[in-house]
Amino acid sequence: LQREREAGIPSEQSYEVAKAIKERYCYVCPNIQKEFVKYDTEPDKYVQCYHGLNNVTKKPFSVDVGHERFLGPEIFFHPEFVSSDYVTSISESVDQVIQQCPIDVRRGLYENIVLSGGSTMFKDFGRRLQRDLKKATDQRLMLSEQLSGGKVKPKNIDVQVISHKRQRYAVWFGGSIFIEEKMELGVVLYDQSEIVITSQGNKISRKAKTYGTQNIRLSGYTIVMRDVLLRGDLAQIRYGKYCVLQEGTIVRPPSKCFSNGLVFFPVHFGDYVFIEKI
């Protein structure tokens, strides 16, 4: 975008200049048409100027940054601006991925959309993504209500896009934790004589202690290893696909007080899991 308008950018520094402009001046706008009007009516207020030094000639150069401030990030939401080969926005991609998941986990996924990567650091990126996803879910619920003739009123879906302090390098942090020896999961491979496989695909070690099992429900693809203690009166345990409950883990009943005064809360998919290690 800058090359089309600014001829003074050194070609060998184009990436460096684009990166600096992206990080300093770019942001995500809620309405691209209104943003054009703002820049056209008050250019002195919104147009920024980037100053750099040519690495070869050592001469200073400057670049005016106008509509590019919001047009650059807008590519995430309107990729067709760059190429007609790409027409699916990031909002649509996230929505499609969640819709392809099992229906009973979709609400939890919509409530836990975590941003990661440098390009998500644009100002108001999360707010725009959350707005677009909320609009898509509301339209889908409205259509369902119309198709039912107004007989079914679906519960609203809460969409939460989460920003956090490690957002820029979240993938790197996750990878460093994963390869940390102290965090390595010691998964034990059981043969058929050592485990019980339920109809929902849960794998429960015969050496696990399951008290009050008539009230315990595992949602599927949960591996309960030996020496895991499950107490009675549990709601559904939904840790996600192929969750491993490690040896020496105790899962307590939800919302129940014990003699030692400890209170443990219900476990729901998408929430933080409260467990106590023996």
From TrEMBL:
Question: This chain belongs to which protein, by name?
Answer: Actin-related protein
- Tell me any Pfam family this protein matches: DCTN5
Query: What lineage is on file?
Result: Eukaryota, Metazoa, Ecdysozoa, Nematoda, Chromadorea
Task: State the organism of origin.
Answer: Meloidogyne javanica (Root-knot nematode worm)
- The domain of life is Eukaryota
Stored SUPFAM superfamilies: Actin-like ATPase domain, Trimeric LpxA-like enzymes
PANTHER family membership: ACTIN
Q: Which family does it belong to?
A: Belongs to the actin family.
Which InterPro entries does the protein's record reference? Actin (IPR004000), ATPase_NBD (IPR043129), Trimer_LpxA-like_sf (IPR011004)
